C-alpha cells in the first residue's frame, strides 16, 4: 500500500523512520528501490530487497517477522487503501468491493497495536456522508475496541451529524491548502491509542493549512517549462530554423507564460486533480473533460503526457495549439514530490504512479501533527509552519466537506532534516 511513495516521502519529512514498506505494484516497488536507499536505516542492499507484496500477506511475511515488534512498540502504521471502492467516479461498492483493504489494514492494527494509525483514501468515502457512514462507524467501532480514541457515534443520529462528530479523527484535507498547486481533496483517518494520549497530555489537532503565500502552477512549473522550451528557443516544431509564420520555442514558452499568468489573476492558478487512471484504460492523460479545459486555460495541453526532455518530440510534446503537454517530472512537481524522486517503468506507468499518489506535503502536515502527540516536547517546532484547527473554529454546515476551493494555496517551505520515531508504511 505504499504506491510510489507519496505518503512515505511526507512522513519521512515529518521525521519518521521507516521500518518497512509494503506495495504490490511492481513499477511502484522499483520506484521505491530507486529512492529510499538514502533514508536513515536503509541502504542500497536493503532497498533492493523490496519485493511486491499484497498487504493481506504482510503479517505472515518474513518482512513482518524480521521487525521483531511486540504489540504496542510501533509508533505509526500508515497507508492508503485502494480508492475504487469509494470513488465518486466508480460503482461505490465500498466493503462489498473485493479491492477494499480496510479489513486488511485493521487486521494489521489489531496485531501490532501501533501508537497511531493514519489511513488515506479518496474523499468519496466521506461525501456525501450517508453513502458510507455505516461502514465508517463500523471501522471506528473496531478501532475503539482495539484501544484507540475515537468518537462515540449514535446510530439514530442523522448521517450529517455522525459525519461532523467523526471529523475529530476522519476528515477531508485539500492539497491546495498545503503548498500543492492542485485541487486534490483526500480523506484521512487518524486514530491514536487512548493510553498514548493520556501519557502525552497533548491532543491530536488537525493542521488546516500551511502558512505563507499561495503556490500556483505558474510558480511551480515556470523554471522547468522554460528549460524544456530553451532547446528549441530559435527553432520551429521540426527542430529547424523557423520559416515565416512558424512558432519557435520562445513563442511556445511566452504563450504558456501569458496563459498561466492570466489564470493566476483570475483566481484559477491551481491545477485540477491529477488522475492516474488504471491499467485497464488506455494511455495517460491529465483527467476528464472538465479538467482538460482547466489545464487549457492555464496554457497546458492535457490530452496526454509529454516525453522526457531528452526524448522530446517537439511537435507532439511542445508545439501543440493548446500549449505544451506536461512531462512526468512536471506532473510530480504538481503532486508535491521532491525534486529528484526517480519514477521507474515506461512513461505511462510512471505517470500513473504520480497521478495515484498522496501528495507528500499533505502527508507531512498530518505526520507532524501525529508526531506532536508522540513527541510533545517538540510540538512547537513540529507545527511552527502550520495553522491548526481549534475548537473555536466553526465546523461549518453539514455539507462543508462537499465544497471544493478554487484557489488559496500556501507556499511550501524547506523540509526539516530531523528524523524521529518509527512506522510501517503500507501505501500512498
Automatic annotation (TrEMBL):
Which InterPro entries does this one have? C5-Methyltransferase, C5_DNA_meth_AS, C5_MeTfrase, C5_meth_CS, SAM-dependent_MTases_sf
Protein family membership:
Belongs to the class I-like SAM-binding methyltransferase superfamily. C5-methyltransferase family.
- EC numbers, comma separated: 2.1.1.37
PROSITE patterns according to UniProt: C5_MTASE_1, C5_MTASE_2, SAM_MT_C5
Q: Which reaction does it catalyse?
A: a 2'-deoxycytidine in DNA + S-adenosyl-L-methionine = a 5-methyl-2'-deoxycytidine in DNA + S-adenosyl-L-homocysteine + H(+)
* Gene Ontology MF terms in the entry: DNA (cytosine-5-)-methyltransferase activity
Coiled-coil boundaries: none
Q: Which UniProt keywords apply?
A: Methyltransferase, Restriction system, S-adenosyl-L-methionine, Transferase
What top-level class of enzyme does the UniProt entry assign?
A: transferase
User: Where on the tree of life does the source sit, at the highest rank?
Assistant: Bacteria
To which species is this protein native?
Streptomyces machairae
Region annotated Disordered sits at 391-428
Identification of the protein by name: Cytosine-specific methyltransferase
In terms of Pfam families, this protein maps to:
DNA_methylase (PF00145)
Amino acid at each position: 500500500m505504499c504506491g510510489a511513495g507519496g505518503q512515505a516521502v511526507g512522513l519521512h519529512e515529518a521525521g519518521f523512520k521507516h521500518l518497512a514498506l509494503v506495495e504490490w505494484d511492481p513499477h511502484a516497488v522499483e520506484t521505491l528501490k530507486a529512492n529510499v536507499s538514502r533514508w536513515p536505516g536503509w541502504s542500497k542492499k536493503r532497498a533492493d530487497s523490496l519485493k511486491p507484496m499484497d498487504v493481506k500477506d504482510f503479517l505472515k511475511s518474513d518482512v513482518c517477522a524480521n521487525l521483531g515488534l511486540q504489540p504496542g512498540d510501533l509508533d505509526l502504521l500508515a497507508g492508503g487503501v485502494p480508492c475504487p471502492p469509494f470513488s465518486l467516479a466508480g460503482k461505490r461498492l465500498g466493503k462489498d468491493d473485493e479491492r477494499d483493504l480496510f479489513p486488511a489494514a485493521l487486521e494489521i492494527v489489531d496485531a501490532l497495536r501501533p501508537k497511531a494509525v493514519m489511513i488515506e483514501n479518496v474523499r468519496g468515502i466521506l461525501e456525501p456522508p450517508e453513502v458510507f457512514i455505516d461502514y465508517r462507524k463500523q471501522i471506528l467501532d473496531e478501532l475503539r475496541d482495539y484501544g484507540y480514541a475515537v468518537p462515540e457515534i449514535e446510530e439514530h443520529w442523522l448521517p450529517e451529524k455522525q459525519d461532523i462528530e467523526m471529523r475529530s479523527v476522519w476528515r477531508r484535507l485539500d492539497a491546495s491548502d498545503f503548498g500543492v498547486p492542485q485541487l486534490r481533496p483526500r480523506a484521512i483517518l487518524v486514530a491514536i491509542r487512548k493510553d498514548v494520549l493520556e501519557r502525552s497530555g497533548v491532543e491530536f489537532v488537525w493542521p488546516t493549512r500551511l502558512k505563507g503565500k499561495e503556490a500556483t502552477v505558474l510558480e511551480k512549473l515556470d523554471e522547468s517549462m522554460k528549460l524544456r522550451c530553451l532547446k528549441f528557443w530559435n527553432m520551429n516544431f521540426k527542430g529547424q530554423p523557423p520559416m515565416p509564420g512558424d512558432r519557435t520555442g520562445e513563442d511556445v514558452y511566452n504563450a504558456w507564460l501569458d496563459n498561466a499568468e492570466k489564470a493566476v489573476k483570475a483566481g484559477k492558478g491551481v491545477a485540477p486533480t491529477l488522475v492516474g487512471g488504471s491499467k485497464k484504460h488506455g494511455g495517460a492523460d491529465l483527467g476528464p473533460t472538465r479538467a482538460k479545459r482547466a489545464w487549457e486555460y492555464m496554457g497546458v495541453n492535457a490530452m496526454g503526457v509529454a516525453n522526457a526532455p531528452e526524448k522530446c518530440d517537439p511537435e507532439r510534446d511542445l508545439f501543440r495549439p493548446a500549449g505544451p503537454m506536461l512531462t512526468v517530472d512536471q506532473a510530480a512537481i504538481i503532486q508535491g514530490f521532491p525534486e529528484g524522486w526517480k519514477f521507474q517503468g515506461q512513461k505511462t506507468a510512471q505517470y500513473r504512479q504520480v497521478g495515484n499518489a498522496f501528495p507528500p506535503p499533505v502527508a507531512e502536515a498530518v505526520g507532524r501533527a501525529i508526531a506532536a502527540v508522540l513527541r510533545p516536547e517538540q510540538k512547537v517546532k513540529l507545527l511552527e509552519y502550520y495553522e491548526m484547527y481549534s475548537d473555536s473554529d466553526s465546523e461549518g454546515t453539514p455539507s462543508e466537506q462537499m465544497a471544493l476551493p478554487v484557489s488559496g494555496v500556501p507556499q511550501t517551505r524547506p523540509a526539516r532534516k530531523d528524523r524521529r520515531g518509527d512506522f510501517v508504511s503500507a501505501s500512498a
